[in-house]
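hey all, quick one before standup. I had two proteins in the batch that finished overnight and I want to keep them in one place so we stop losing track of which output belongs to which input. First protein below, input sequence then structure tokens straight from the run.
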Amino acid sequence: MYLYGTVRSYAEAASSGQPTPGGGSVAALAGALGMTMGCMAANFTVGKKKFKAVEPEVQQLLAACLRARDDLLRLMDEDTKAYAAVSAAYAMPKQTPEEAAARTAMIQKALVVAMDSPLQVVRTCRSALEPIARLAEVANPNLISDVGVAAILAEAALRAAKLNVEINLQSLEDKALSSATRSEVERAAEEARAIARQTMEKVVRAIGGTL
């Protein structure tokens, strides 16, 4: 939908009064941009004699960042499609008890589907912070600030996606699913915060900056 358009067209659509792309899609895009910086740091390390000893590991880290980048770009569009289904469900008629019941059932179904994309963003960003953290230790130090950008955006994307999960949980009637999902995203956010901070501590030590 937006994946193969221009940055300008996406920004215009996200800025407009239309419901999509919204926060979940933007969160996925932010995470994908973070992963590009992880890829960049890895690509400036592989093939260099100075880093030959760590090249096999960095190749694996590069592959992990590329997978995360592509997954997040896919989720950027999937979130938009899923939210459109929620809007359509809320627009269903509710004049009769039968219509109201059908509308409620469709809304609940659409909410579960819509929640899945930002939940996948949370999971992807949480996992992606692991190779980013390692790149802060083994990648070409000339790219250390880019590794920092990757860590910042990955954690921010996770937190943003978490908000989009939680707003769907607010209207979800399946309390068991709601509780399990809330626990998962809270745990992921806590772990991501710790990994991102540890990564940034290494980055700022390397460049003489501050957190």
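OK second protein, same deal, sequence then tokens:
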Amino acid sequence: MAIGLVSAFFFSSTFILNRAIAVEGGHWFWSASLRYSYMLLFLGLALIVSKDFLYFKSLVSEFLKNYIFWILSGSIGFGCFYALLCFAAATSPGWVVAATWQLTIVASLFVLTAFGKKIPKRTWLFALIILAGVSLVNLSQFEHSNAGKLLFNVLCIILAAFCYPLGNQLVWEAKNNRSGLPKISTAITNNAFAKVFLLSLGSCPFWIILFFCFDVSVPSEGQLINVAIVAIFSGVFATPIFLYARNKADTPKKLAAVDASQSGEVIFALGGEVLFLGATYPNMVGFTGLFLIIIGLSAMVYFDDK
């Protein structure tokens, strides 16, 4: 759980910087797609330096051998997930996106259940408390936002909340030799950086298709720099740390608890947005929602150790 919270701290930079980019007029497509372009570059160089070129070559061979699996899991877990988040961040405060994103905790329970995992009833209860908190956070924004646009953004984030755990769970299932999925070398599944590299590579076809679906201008220099920072903090640091924590989880309940640690992003994102972007503090309804999110997370962590 502690490792998961560390990843949540780095993940929070995504919501703060994406909001800053949107305020400056940067298109959400570049915020999403450039992140994974940078990640491929950074992770590729890091793997070559920390391992060697032969190891990097083996990763490329693994991708080509099971390209359908990696394109599917990468497009769902990285592509769809992040495109939807960046789209929502274009018109919503970063901390609100981060709070709504905690629906991934509830979505994760459904994904785990769909893969045959048994989740304790009390875990569902704590997840529902978090869901209530997310609902209050969004209700607090109705006086500041267009209701239709806010509801559409919530729908986008709900879809993203399902995509992220689904893409990651496909890799976890492949690691455990689930029938119907390719058998992946443990040398790869036990290396979080290798998994992120392969998932990022798998998302490339998705970004290419998306490019031809939207009319986007050339990204500004500021957007290039901010997305590079997001790629380092959220992609190179946070994602491997999060996947490492997930890889250490050996029971469905622990998997759910690691996923729940991402609620910490809300507090980090709110603090960062107030400090760096001059955002206003939430009203009483918003604070109540944040409080419920923290209570739900804390209860899930506490009872996971029992």
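Flagging for whoever picks this up: The chain has one domain: 2-304. Residues 147-175 form the longest helix (29 residues).
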